[in-house]
Design a protein that fits this description.
The chain is of the alpha/beta class. Helix content is 35%, strand content 15%.
């Protein structure tokens, strides 16, 4: 049987999770819309036992990350399953710029379970020392939406006290940009809604680990909380993940060009880009200028979320909980359109 370590990641994205190549078998994993199965086999009820679609998707993503994957109904469900293991009074270290859903879970844990939540700048070298103090370090790199980059290798490799876990949200970087498990992380989480799914048509999350005990706990949490992914969503995400290397390469190449052009534009005060990937943030003079630009685009879509084949942009400060973000900051997820069409649209929107 072909293993992920036998081939390059770009190849595994194509071949991973496919059915056995028996004569007459389907090339792709078919949809299996079943909640219950005839007793006597391994599958009983699909809230607890994965369907073939889940297993294929999990095999593909797990292979890309170098571990075993557990699919969830959404990225938030995956995050909640990981954070839900923290005991009362736990010490959680979280980036000062992170996904607001995770910040909300942390606030709820502080309120309901007495968690001590400590926020650190994403690029702060102090993360390394916290590995010897905290119960869980939640690292998001690049961060959302300021695109700050943490020293993931140093954090994951830092000496820890027994029981300390390091979790890395790898949604923006994708498994093609970095592999935190290889660096020593305990769990990697993704909103598969974003780059992995890649078409803005599904909600799905995934957590990946190389620890068998952690894997069992994640699967148990999924079943007990009813955070099971839909059959159609897994089918669509698996199909979308097949083109992740191609989409990401196109988006990254276009993003690099846009970064250069935006940096030279007189209306742009600052450009934020981690040096890789398909997400760019840039700052205009104020909220009014950013709102006007977002309303003026036609090729680019004025929409939230990211990682799809289409280029989207939005003013993040307008979102609840993002008041600390500069008022004129626009987060742009670069898609797969022709770069000249995107730039012509964006340049027109930046005119006063």
């Amino acid at each position: 049987m072909l293993r992920s370590e036998d081939v390059k990641p770009q190849t595994w994205a194509i071949v991973g999770g496919r059915p056995d190549g028996n004569p007459g078998a389907p090339l792709n994993t078919p949809l299996v819309p079943a909640s219950a199965f005839v007793l006597g086999g391994e599958r009983i009820y699909s809230r607890n036992e994965a369907t073939e679609g889940w297993e294929s998707f999990e095999a593909l993503v797990g292979g890309l990350e170098g571990g075993s994957a557990v699919a969830f109904a959404s990225g938030m469900a995956a995050c909640a399953a990981v954070l839900g293991r923290l005991p009362s009074g736990a010490h959680l270290v979280l980036g000062d710029d992170c996904y607001q859903g995770v910040a909300g879970l942390a606030q709820a844990g502080a309120r309901d379970h007495g968690w001590r939540v400590e926020r650190l700048p994403v690029a702060d070298p102090g993360w390394v020392a916290k590995a010897a103090e905290a119960d869980l370090l939640w690292v998001e790199s690049p961060s959302n939406p300021l695109l700050d980059v943490a020293d993931v290798a140093a954090i994951c490799g830092a000496p820890r006290r027994p029981g300390t876990r390091v979790v890395v949200d790898n949604t923006f970087a994708t498994p093609l940009g970095q592999q935190p498990l290889v660096l020593g992380a305990d769990v990697v989480v993704h909103s598969a809604t974003k780059f992995i799914g890649g078409h803005s048509d599904l909600l799905l999350g995934v957590a990946v680990t190389a620890d068998p005990d952690e894997l069992a706990l994640l699967r148990t949490a999924r079943g007990l909380n009813g955070a099971t992914p839909g059959t159609l969503e897994c089918f669509l995400a698996l199909r979308g993940a097949r083109t992740l290397p191609l989409r990401l390469a196109q988006a990254s190449a276009s993003a690099a060009q846009l970064v250069q052009r935006l940096g030279e534009h007189p209306a742009v005060h600052r450009v934020r880009y981690p040096g890789f990937g398909g997400v760019v943030s840039f700052e205009l003079a104020d909220a009014a200028a950013a709102d006007r630009a977002c309303r003026s685009v036609t090729v680019i879509r004025h929409a939230t979320s990211l990682g799809g084949v289409e280029t989207t942009m939005e003013r993040r400060n307008a979102q609840p909980g993002q008041e600390h973000i500069p008022a004129g900051l626009i987060r742009m997820s670069v898609g797969c359109e022709d770069i000249e069409d995107v730039w012509r649209d964006l340049e027109g929107a930046l005119r006063p």
